[in-house]
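Large ribosomal subunit protein uL24: structure tokens wanted.
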Amino acid sequence: MAAKKMHVKKDDMVMVIAGKEKGKTGKIMRVLPGKGRVVVENLNVVKRHTRPNRVNTQGGIVEKEAPLDASNVALVCSACNKPTRTGVRVLEDGTKTRFCKKCNETLDK
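Answer:
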């Protein structure tokens, strides 16, 4: 399966717009473009029962973040602090940058 074009990047602040974590915000830790999913810090936490191994000699129940579908998160604009859709703008020097569709502010610095 080909990698999907993602509207968010690592370290972006996002708000969950659908699902059990709806309305919560967090920072993106990982982007999985092959699956179209993102891992958001301290959201969608699941418990995994792990066996003892060389890394984790104790074993037991481990809590970790599970991936969310990228369509269920919206980028939070740093200027207006609202979840927003983004557009792409080409600057004078030819570089592409994302901008907020609500306040028209540049998101990438």
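Strands lie at 13-16, 25-32, 37-40, 45-50, 60-65, 68-69, 73-76, 83-84, 86-90, 96-100. The chain is about 0% helix and 40% strand.

Cheers.
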